[in-house]
Design a protein that fits this description.
- The protein has 625 residues and is of the alpha/beta class.
- The chain folds into five domains: 148 residues, 3-Layer(aba) Sandwich (Rossmann fold); 120 residues, PAS domain (Beta-Lactamase, 2-Layer Sandwich); 96 residues, Beta-Lactamase, CATH 3.30.450.20; 73 residues, Helix Hairpins; 142 residues, Histidine kinase-like ATPase, C-terminal domain (Heat Shock Protein 90, 2-Layer Sandwich), CATH 3.30.565.
- It contains 19 helices and 23 strands.
- It has a six-stranded parallel beta sheet, sandwiched between helices. A five-stranded antiparallel beta sheet has the order 8-7-11-10-9. A five-stranded antiparallel beta sheet has the order 13-12-16-15-14.
- Helix 3 packs parallel to helix 4, helix 17 runs parallel beside helix 18 and helix 18 runs antiparallel to helix 19.
Amino acid sequence: MPQHTGAAAARPAIGILVWSNGDEPDVPLLGAIGEAGFAPRIVTGSEDLVLLVSDDPDAVVLLDATTSLDEALAACRRIRQLPEGARTTICLASSKRGADDEVDAIEAGADAFWNASVRANVVRAFVARAKQRAKRAAPASGEVRRTTKRSSRVQVTDQAERQFRALFDNALDLVAIIDESGVVQVANAAVRTVLGRVPEDLAGSSVWDLMHPEDVALARQAHAEALAASGVGAPTTIRARHGDGSWVTLEITERNLLADPAVGGILFYGRDVTERIWVGAALQESELRFREIFENMLDGVVQIDEETRSLVQANPAFCQIVGRTRHEVFGLSLLDLFASDDRDALERVLDEHFTGRRRVSDTLRVRHKDGTLRYVDFGTSRIELSGARPIIAVVRDVTARRETERTREMFLAVVAHELRTPVAVLRNGIEILRSKIGSLPVGDRDTLMGVLTEEVERLTRLVGDALDVGAIQSGSLALRPHRVALAPIVASVAARVGPQFRTSATLDLEATDAWVDPLRFEQVLTNLLDNAWRHCGSSTSVNVTLAIEDAFARISVIDDGPGFPPELQSGLFERVFVPNGSPTCGIGIGLWLSKRLVESMGGEIAAHAGNGGRGACVTFTVPRS
């Protein structure tokens, strides 16, 4: 039971004093003290309290401030003014505690300010800390307690404790004092914002229980280092459970202040780095994503130093365009990689980059390591990077596109030229028929009609070939393959085209079926015979063979004309290929079109020069099934 003490009461040795201003202390407060296992002495007068503390400066004083906060603060100040009042552990408690009351209590010298409904474990931890403090402050045997020197030390200690308490309570980061085993003695108000918990509720609990199970071992290791070194433990990043159940990432540090009378424990410091960790992880993920994109872009990307115009970074696509490794291009001047005729244009692009235009581009020629020139679209973009403005350039290889454009232009020019001849013949023939239809002899009229018919067929072939080129390039060419007997088709084509040659085409045909589109097969064979006539003339002879070769049928067209030089063999099947000096007409797509048609039917085609440089042999295969 609590013991009451009046003004005339004896002054036995005391441990815990509960002061109330003339009334019984708050019942929940007494209940928590009793539940904590303590039997306090109740004091109802300020003078009695001062006398009792003077006799036992190591006492724990709990001031009930519910009735009058001002009187409780005054009692706290009187205790601190005693010669050894700094040794006394003082706590205010009130069920009416306001936001600014705790500050007033600290300024008056209180060690803590509780709500009157404080829990027993908080009381127990508070008393334990007071006992540790009293143990360190106890005088040695034979020491005279009240001396001028002692009073001076007490005043210094009192001032240090006040300064520490002010820093402790006003810190924005979580600060707690824990003992050697990790039990919280007291925590500052920042625990509310950092962990969403009440400071008093943490007293008496273990810091390890607040941590993620996977992080406890690492935190204990840092704790052991702080104990062993009597200094600062290594900063450690751990996850702590927030009051709402989520995890908060803390960077914790421990400082061993067990020997410091102002602290008497281990200072546990925790800074909330959740956002920093999240931002760091997001930044790392962003950098990895950027690096992945940078490394795998099909276009070349380079970073250029704005002062020296040298290359700082280059991705694999750019290195492939210039035929060099990253090590080889690093530090090279950008100008040295471009054709000398294009360097002025490149300089203009770079200069315009610094005039404020966000994107600048031009088509230039870059020099490959093997000496060849490749066309590229070169464009720069302005970006901000850590306050700097590096030049970031995108380099797209458009050599194939330029070649396609050149070929298309050449093709259109050749087609336009070739169309003029049949159109002119048709126009002249029609004019003759219109003006002389009545007087033209029958023989001449038939001859003229034959010429007109041939030119119409020629015009039809030209238009048909041009349409087939477009269909192949767009992927819309339609094939209708089925099983077909090849010998009759070969014989029919040879009979139709053969009379153009000096002698009729000779045939060596082996009966076989094949899986082809008969119209396209006939078109290929007609193109090959027509090509032989165009480039060899009517004085040559031609031989057509058909044979079985495993799962394929092989068709060969062999002539004894002038043939072709070996250096032209690789370009025979290119579009718009006309050998230099060829006197023959044509739009130069016969072999190119034949190759695409044969491959579309599942076969292959090749050309070889004849023996002794005379003649040529063009062979193609088609599948038999």
